[in-house]
Design a protein that fits this description.
The protein is an alpha/beta fold. It has a domain of 129 residues: P-loop containing nucleotide triphosphate hydrolases (Rossmann fold), CATH 3.40.50.300. A four-stranded mixed beta sheet has the order 2-3-1-4, sandwiched between helices. Strand 2 and strand 3 form a beta hairpin. The longest helix is centred in the middle third of the chain and has 12 residues. It is rod-shaped.
């Protein structure tokens, strides 16, 4: 190609081309191409896999309205005719209601009426049960008639403002059985839960087990010690250490 025959923009400036060259460069009319597509004529080549693809629809340039256009398949085409689909244009759930409901922990308490008033709230005692580090399990052990049940009565008096302490009268709150009341001897281990404070003062939840002092009910003492973290040994200052006192110490 001679560069002198073209300007800087690539336009041809040379002499006129012969008519034979112009005829060779004339493209095939568009109408003939469309006729070939309509007649289904295809050019077969000798190379396998290089056959011309047949076009079903000729691209058209007519104007299609926006509401007539189809961008996505319908729900029936996606899920099938047997699936019922619903489309809601307005949200029926109010904005004040969360989409994912939070987990609500409900607390139920059964309270008896007519109970004596305590120096602590019942709700406070129940909530302390959820903190094991603030719970103490102790057993009251000792010889017969050394004052184990009376010691528990003193703790009840300290935690109940409406209970009047009478030195000459034993309330025996942990002796609930009829035989225990009649004979004045504890037969079974009886638990009692109280909220007590130390010298700081720091509140703790005490699960107190009042055990029998008779030698025939030492099995109740053994079971109570298995459930307890510690023990309080009650010794009568007059009688001193007795046989059953030594027995429970060996436990």
């Amino acid at each position: 190609m001679d560069d002198s025959l073209y300007d800087e923009f690539g336009n041809y400036l040379g002499p006129d081309l012969p008519e034979s060259d112009e005829e060779e460069e004339v493209p095939q009319p568009m109408q003939e191409v469309e006729d070939n597509y309509e007649d289904g004529e295809t050019e077969e080549t000798g190379v396998p896999g290089m056959e011309l693809m047949e076009i079903d629809d000729i691209p058209q340039t007519q104007v299609v309205l926006h509401e007539d256009k189809k961008y996505y398949p319908s729900a029936e085409e996606v899920y099938g005719p047997e699936v019922e689909t619903l489309v809601q244009e307005e949200d029926t759930q109010p904005l004040s209601e969360p989409i994912i409901q939070p987990i609500k922990i409900k607390k139920f308490q059964i309270q008896e009426k007519g109970l004596p008033e305590t120096r602590f709230k019942k709700e406070f005692m129940v909530d302390m049960m959820n903190f094991p580090e603030l719970v103490r399990n102790i057993a009251i052990i000792g010889h017969l008639h050394h004052g184990k049940t009376s010691f528990v009565d003193m703790l009840v008096n300290e935690t109940h403002s409406s209970v009047a302490w009478d030195v000459d009268k034993q309330e025996r709150y942990t002796d609930t059985h009829t035989l225990e009341r009649d004979r004045g001897v504890s037969i079974k281990s009886m638990p009692m839960t109280l909220v007590l404070q130390d010298t700081r003062p720091k509140s703790y939840l005490f699960n107190i087990l009042d055990t029998p002092g008779h030698v025939d009910f030492v099995d109740e003492v053994t079971a109570a010690l298995r459930l307890s973290d510690g023990a309080v040994i009650i010794v009568d200052a007059v009688e001193g250490v007795m046989a059953n006192t030594e027995r429970v110490i060996k436990h």
